[in-house]
Input
Amino acid sequence: MHIVHLKKGYDLRLAGRPDGALEELPRPKQVAAVAERLRFVKPRLAVKVGDRVKVGSLLFSDKRRPELQFRSPGGGTVCAVNFGPRRRLQEIRIELDAEEPYEEFERISGAELESTDRRRLVELIIGGGLWPLIRELPFRDTARPEIVPPALYVNLDNLEPFHPLPEVYLRDRRERMAFGLQALKRIAGAPAVVTVCRPRSADSEWVNGLASQGISGNYPAHDPGVLLYRTKTSLDQQHAWFIDGQDVLLIAELLQTGRYPTERMVSLGGPAAADSRHLRTRIGAPLAALTQGRIAGGEVRRVVGGVLTGSAASPESFLGLFEKSLVLLPEGRRSGTFLGWTLPGAETPSYSRTFLSAFRRPAEHPMDCNRHGGLRACIQCNFCPQVCPVDILPQLAYKAILAGEVEEALDHGLLDCVECGLCAFVCPSKIDLLQALREARAKFYDELA
Amino acid sequence: MNPVKRFFDSQRRHFENGGRWARYFFLYENLESVFFAPATVTAASPHVRDSLDVKRFMFLVIVALLPHYAFGAYNVGYQSHLASGLPLEIGAVFLSGLGVVLPMVAVTYAVGYFWEALFASVRKHEISEGLFVTCALFPLTLPPTQPLWQVALGISFGVVIGKEIFGGTGRNFLNPALTGRAFLYFAYPAQTSGDAVWTVLLAGRTASVDAFTGATPLAIAQATEAAAIPQAWSDAGYSFGTLFLGLYPDSIGASATLLCIIGALFLITVGVADYRIICGDILGFMVTGTLLNLIASPSTSPYLALNPFYHLLVGGAAFGIAYMTTDPVSAPAMPNARWIYGFLIGMLTVLIRVFNPAFPEGIGIAILFMNCFAPLLDEIQIRIRLKKRMPNVR
Output
């Protein structure tokens, strides 16, 4: 297997990494379809409070492309439709019935897959409400079903703290995975590039067998954008598609069983987690059900989707369609120790070598959400270009964005940016580089549309 | 609870909304943040941040400079006792030196902080720690006899014109400490150049003033008629060891080459200074010096024949290399541009010293000159780099 190695990037070594243990959670009383953390999607509501819904019933669609639908992760009664600021749809809560009714979709067997028309297959996935799981680079919006992508990447691993391990979510599901990959091959017109992070321990060697592309190195080596940047040879390749390994299982389940899949493996961890592990629950489960009895105490931030790129979720929120990671971080809203900046810092986590920790490399760091410093102007410390996985000069791209020079930012590789957040993480001036780059990319995307 | 914490907590109400000094909240906040890192938490992703902030980044430079202050106090005292014919006991020498150095440092910090606080209050931002580095560097470059009012004027020029009018630390293109130093050099040459300014003559001296020449190694190098400058130096009592340790009349702390090497290694180790600039500097000195050696003949100035190692030894060259050229803000950002920047600084310094007797030390001017070209060097490397990048937009 050919291995692409990422020299740059950074491994946070965050404390509270979940091990391979898997715990089955009881069925929740309520589930919800979360819309507030969906990027780009403009939801158009299709239900109201009191409506009866089945698993897989239409809840809302995307105003930009009405055929792209988001379907119900549970069967029962719509008990609340919540709106956020400016009446943006936040979530649709569903009180589950004891016996959940299912919406029935068309089934396809492994043998039929080869003879099914590509268009037909795409329509089945769109109709089943799972098309949004396939996304398109460089903007990471929903893939355009009308194009044939130059490549389709499936990343089994996600190195951002903390995501489920393929060893856990693929255990007993290798046949389903193979079916899913076969379906994706039909859709993309070529075998999907399945990436796996190397090296792996001896007892999980079997995961390598599923992959066609090895990657090694620090976070974000797993990111399809990084792989694309490292392997692309022409401009035509930049609209590659990608999908997360676990989401392939969902598509396979939809096609095989004709039912909207609800199962989700989530990794729960972080310094404020009393108990770090993988949880088997369902899409749209309440976060409270996941964290029940597992919070170490103090003021805790619940981050879904990874500590570097994810969002903070309220304790009353639910698990979104894309979300497989819940990290509990201490809020860290306290002032530092007396003259803390003069201490040697044998345990202080840092990308730089300015603390003693750089020379003894502790195995893991209990980090919190404190910003660790005041906002300053850029001092050209050059940490961000050193850490950027796609060789952008983030500080200069950022300055170009501030000056309104979008063209210059594009020349700097704004569209190659994988939004990994490392530039903002390492910045000693505490500049919000990630937010600035994200906004600039989204704005440029809007202008293209 | 920490008594300092208790003090800040008890005073906080006066500065918060509705308090007597609410409009000076930024000052309170700045002062508090010196002792206790603020409790601010991240607002959006990334939710965790690195522990390094600008405060620590700058603080490490000051750590590297502290030995220079200890040495500077000793050397100033030692030279003045030597010239004044007073006993050379280490304690007494150190105390006299401290009596000269401390007021200069105090004035520098007081005046520098005043300007920074003024601009911070008008602009409503926090005080940037770059100021503390500027104020730590500035006195070390001055002759010990500099009148305090000139010290105040110099740091004012450095901070205001060298930095604040461009927007403060991070937005300046000149090294503020050197800008202040250059201002004094041109505005008050009588107090900043010549042979007499480098030694403080103390009251109660026993030696006659006439017996004291105080010529610096650079002045000797300029003036010597001898075939070899090192010979002229050792005749004047400046052996290699003396020059290496820095025990000769010079600006307060800049002569200690040994300490500069230690400081530079420290800053490279912690990743605050870039080895590329430092190596480029040294390469520039060596290559230019060697080339001049090649064209030197008995009819040319003996300066041309000077072994380039000696250029690194005298005239604050090591100090400039270790602490002034490595300022990340006024240096280029790109790695190769940093090599070139360093090389050209070394080259210019040697050329200025050898061919322009008006600027015997040379390196300060060379650094300020190259500061102006840093953006150009950056621009060249960025263009080359972006050309190699596969475009993403048609």
About this structure: Chain A has a mean pLDDT of 92.
